[in-house]
Amino acid sequence: MPKMKTKKSASKRFVVRPGGTVKRGHAFKRHILTKKTTKTKRQLRGATSVSAADLPAVKSLLPYA
């Protein structure tokens, strides 16, 4: 039986933590930062978890994670 392929775009965007939650980065932090407030940019720092509603879809993209 051949191995399942991982969606490479998903493997670059998500990291599965040991507890089973999935870590992701924030959107809206890449460009056109001059019109965004300092508060907005500060709150977009760091990582957050994928919501419970989106978790099954993300897990299907990462079969061996």
UniProtKB/TrEMBL annotation:
Name the GO terms of the biological process aspect. translation
- Report if keyword Ribonucleoprotein is assigned: yes
A single Gene Ontology CC annotation of this entry is: cytosolic large ribosomal subunit
Give the highest taxon in the source lineage.
Bacteria
Decide whether keyword Secreted is in the record.
Answer: no
The molecular function terms in GO held by this entry are: structural constituent of ribosome
This protein's UniProt keywords: Ribonucleoprotein, Ribosomal protein
Q: Which family does it belong to?
A: Belongs to the bacterial ribosomal protein bL35 family.
Annotated PANTHER family:
54S RIBOSOMAL PROTEIN BL35M, LARGE RIBOSOMAL SUBUNIT PROTEIN BL35M
Official protein name in the record = Large ribosomal subunit protein bL35
